[in-house]
Amino acid sequence: MRTRVAVIFGGVSVEHEVSVISALQAIQNMNQDKYEIIPLYISKDRVWFTGEEMLDIENYKDLKGLLSKAQKVVMARTEDGKVVVQKEPRPRFGKSILSEVDVAFPIIHGTFGEDGVLQGFLELLNVPYVGCDVLSSSTGMDKVIMKNIYRDSDLPVLDYVWFYSTQWTEDPEAWTTKIKEKLDYPVIVKPANLGSSVGISKAENEEELEEAVDLASKFALKIVVEKMVQNMTEVNCSVLGDYEHVEASVCEQVLGSDEFLSYEDKYAGGSKDGGASKGMESTNRVIPAEIGDGKTKEVQEIAKKSFQMLGCSGVSRIDFIIDNDADKVYINEINTIPGSLSFYLWEPAGKPYKQMLDELIQLALKRERDRGRLMFSIDSNLFSLQTGGSKGSKGSKR
Ligand SMILES: Nc1ncnc2c1ncn2[C@@H]1O[C@H](COP(=O)(O)OP(=O)(O)O)[C@@H](O)[C@H]1O
Ligand SMILES: [Mg+2]
Predict the structure, then answer these.
(1) Percent of the chain beyond pLDDT 70?
(2) Per the structure, how many domains does the chain have?
């Protein structure tokens, strides 16, 4: 019997459309002899849908029309412990369960999909899933937490200052002084937990800093301000594996059309029709990155360490900024569900997309087996052990 894989995509982040592209690309490349694919599309208003028609990108042009016809579903756990895709609302007569699920495969970039929220839902259902777990997803998504962990692990990150937007509003002068002293201009201001360059801007002076913080505050409560590297090379490297074994892909060099990569650069840049139809695949890039063997090795080694340091699993892409003047490599960020799942960095490394997807699903099943050896609960009922009434906390020793 084929393994039933539920590919979950769409979602409520700013990268909704990119997720649709990444997921449909992956589905097209999955080994259909081995895997039965159940597409699960989450609309921007959080309704789940399934059906063959969700597999054709053309259908998304008329989204209203598509969703008015598509089958609404929920993913749920049945009494006998099966995880299923079920019609919503449940029909009064006839079958409500459309399929069982053996493995879930989240392909949602950004908030609620890449940040541990969806992963937590899958944990509660107790279904194996591809990619990072709750903790690695959430730490990878928060640029401040991620930097703290890397800094404490002696992995190279750029200097930064962070604050809540409310703290800024209370005393902008104090923060401006701190930023000037610690980082000096120019700086880059970012919302702490978004992707795709949304809400990010550069500031050369106090006035611009204020504007940049205002912009970032529209997207997140937590803001991070970083030293801007002026003469930089941007290089990305993908890592595949888990806590036991990892490998690094070839590196790509990313070429932005402006001072930094915008949303349009990333997703609409090279596509012939000018639309965002190709996902990360269309970014202007050079593969392999032209940074020499030494730097390539260095980037790959740091990439592998930063993957394992967060406890990642599956495939991630670690983005680097090389400061050409200082000749130093810095981790910029980790993407735990990268655009197009970074397949284009594995094909030149000799791993076809089909094989990579196979490895990802197998890693999900391996994690399930590894965890199966751990104890999650103790088989006893504390209440049934008590004699002579409840003592509450008074008599308890834990
Ligand atoms: N410290 C920095 N110095 C110079 N450019 C930067 C810096 N941080 C980010 N950038 C530019 O901004 C882009 C987006 O920043 P990034 O942190 O990767 O955010 P996102 O999560 O939105 O991709 C980067 O690809 C890079 O071009
Ligand atoms: Mg980035």
Answers:
(1) 89
(2) 3
